Amino acid sequence: MSSREQIMERLIPKPRSRFLLVSCLQCGNKQVFPDTATVKVVCSVCGESLAIPTGGKAKIFGRVEKILD
Ligand SMILES: [Zn+2]
User: Fold this and answer.
1) Which of 24, 25, 34, 45 is the most buried (most CB within 10 A)?
2) Comparing C-alpha atoms, which of 33, 25, 26 is closest to residue 66?
3) How far is the CA of 31 from the centre of ligand 1 (A)?
4) Could you tell me the pTM of the whole model?
């Protein structure tokens, strides 16, 4: 790693949370929400729980299709 890259690394802080693309196990609807969700996330189509807050990282019930960061 060059010194220039090390400087860039310091200037751009890593985000604390990442967004997840999660598909509902019941109906396949896909929703995006942060992995640090502080409220319960439910499927907008069928109402199935997709994630519940745990104080840190949310507990995910759906299938994580993609991590967006
Ligand atoms: Zn659903």
Assistant:
1) 24
2) 33
3) 9
4) 0.74
